[in-house]
Amino acid sequence: PDGSAMSGGYKLALLSEMEIVYYLNLIRYVADNAGDAVLPHRDQLMAAIDLALKVEERPGVVSLQVFKAANKLVRALIHSLVTCRPAEHRSVPPAVWNDPEWQKKHYESWGHVIDMASVDITWVTPSEAGLQWAADLAARYIRKPLAMLRKYISAISTQEESAAQPAAGVNNQQKAGDDS
Fold first, then answer.
1. How far is it, in rounded angstroms, from Cα 135 to Cα 158?
2. pTM
3. d(C-alpha 74, C-alpha 50), whole Å
4. Of the candidates 28, 32, 9, 30, which has an alpha carbon nearest to the alpha carbon of residue 20?
């Protein structure tokens, strides 16, 4: 073995933790507003996430930094796939934006208040395929940590209940002793 991991036919290069975090963050920033444009790359993205979740800072210890970066990528992908948002984030319509004369003096329109009723906004809306992949991502990467949290909460509740029972028994004995 060469120390690299495999997932879905993909192999993780021998990179430092910081390099992996850097590349995951690059993917996250691109995916953040990509919406359905990420769908053709879903196999590669899931392989990258799967491999990143297995990165160890030392044998048997998962790298917290890489783990966080991989989960932030999952969050960005899900958000990008399910969010309705304007297609353009510019203050003027595309016809004005692309006008060479306007571009020469674009600074003159800075700070102008526009009538929102006259703005022609094109919206990016989630597709069926995007929503389905977002649900698949959530099922794949959120189900296990959620089950672990539920198990942890259950264990804490059980400990608190068992710790409270002897105390309640002592209080009842003290009250019975006070009556006599």
1. 32
2. 0.71
3. 11
4. 28
